[in-house]
Design brief:
Blueprint: H1 3-18, E1 33-36, E2 39-43, E3 49-53, E4 60-63, E5 70-73, E6 92-94, E7 101-106, E8 109-114, E9 124-126, E10 129-132
Antiparallel strand pairs: 1-2, 2-3, 4-5, 6-7, 7-8, 9-10
Amino acid sequence: MNAWKWAVVFVLVLAAACGKPKEGDVCQGGDPQCADDHTLLECEDDGHYRAIGCPGPDGCVFDNHAAEPLLVCDLTGTQTGDECESSYQGFVLCTDDTHTHALICGGDIWRAEPCPNATCVDGIGGIDGPDSTGDCE
């Protein structure tokens, strides 16, 4: 077998052995990926993947049935202190039916905030971050 053929075989075997990326692996920008059923991997500015939990029942899934295929992270069940995706800074998740409490993504973690006068409005997620961040004033 020629040397270039061995090189191709070696690269294919190496690629197959690498599998999916995991937290801390080197990345070069691009779209987030699912590491497993309930973990999203986001490529950080430092060039490494960071794991974000998708605790809801739908977890982390690639939706190829949408008009434009996209990755979906179900945030149902998110708790104070959980990590959040950097593109979701300021994003609001209302935590009760009275609209008086919310989780807000800030500093890459979800923090609890009161919403005076029942003003909590959920944000709307989008492909490259939130389409609207919601409100809690």
